[in-house]
Amino acid sequence: MPNTVNAALPEMPITGIVADLLGRLDASLGDVKDALALPPECYTSPEWYEFERRAVFDRDWMVLAHVGTIPDNGDYVSVEINGEPMLVVRGRDGEVRVLSSVCRHRGHVLGDAAGNAKNFTCPFHAWSYDLEGNLTAAPEMNGTLPFEDLKKTACLPRFRSETWNGFVFVNLDGEAPPLAPRLQGLSALLANHGMSELGAISTVDWAGNPWNWKFMQENAMEPYHTSYLHSGIHDFAPAHNCDFTEWDDSDDAAIYREVRFTHLDGGFNVAAKALFPPIPTLTEAERSRIVFAAVMPNLFLGAQGDVVFYYVILPQSAGTITLRVGLLTTWDNLAHPNAPALLRGTLEGIGIFNDQDVVANTQTARGMRSRLAPRSRWAPAEKTLAQLNAWLIKRYKSYAQSLIPIAEAAE
Ligand code: FES
Ligand SMILES: [Fe+2]
Fold this sequence. Notes:
By secondary structure, the protein is of the alpha+beta class. The protein has helices at residues 16-22, 46-57, 147-153, 184-190, 213-221, 284-287, 331-334, 339-368, 383-410; strands at residues 62-66, 75-81, 84-90, 96-100, 114-116, 119-121, 128-130, 135-137, 158-164, 167-171, 199-200, 204-209, 242-244, 254-260, 289-295, 299-303, 308-317, 320-329. 41% of the residues are buried.
């Protein structure tokens, strides 16, 4: 494993509203029967968001892309997450790497949104890098520094990455415990989907969603609202058919639930029917359900019989996120003669549910900014929200406690 960079943000003092909120978290620990929601300011405060950038996004695994979107050597996608521009690249050797996309000359960001490249040449002054990030050209620089010396210090930094089920994750501080051992329950549940072998369509970005990143996972992970907000169109996957899992502190990277359909090969569209042929390795029971999973903090996926749809959540601020939306299915399905129409129908079907969730998330974000915003109790069907908070509070406290010796040493 070559050296990877520790790119964690500088530590921040725990003062003001961040200290206040940390002191109020314990009421959000525990089972759904007892716990409260997080304090509203955890969804609205810019200071708390800065704290999360360090405590959560810098220190855990964040999903960037699925390998199905970069199947060929030289394929790449660009992602900017937690303020850091990156390239997810499949090298000449077929290996997927996560590289900084910041040119080592004066910082121009390299690459298009996605593409296939033999090298990355900076448009500004034509410094060039190979797919492993090595500097291969720097015109005229020999006048100040021999190229052999320059290339020792001017390669694109590589971030620590891990691939699970075809999803490429990055860890910015380089010190997170490995991801896969903390995803055992979900890995077993999804084994027959064979997600690492599935093909993918190009992702689509929905930018400027005016709500906190946690709303996305909360909305997706609780079935309570599906009987009401999605009344009628969600009836084939009723909330009372939802199977939860118990919180397991040693297997905590994912929070997930299953919903059994009222029929075989259900799908999220007005016909409630999967449009593509089913993934052939699935059992009938697996074709009769969907698995909704949050791989915290920023991957949400829904695995049904014919496709897996997924959202890469890209927080922009305390109150704004970009959603990068993707779809996986078998390569055979992608080569289906009617694939364009079936894809369009699948995405439009999911979009009907999403449109309702967009309104709900937007209106909830408004309410959370009110001085009378609630810190609620939950319904039993919101069990996953207590689990999401257990995951978050573990990270919040861990980071805050890691800073205490520094503060004490400074006294
Ligand atoms: S900024 Fe990239 S070559 Fe100058
Ligand atoms: Fe929803």
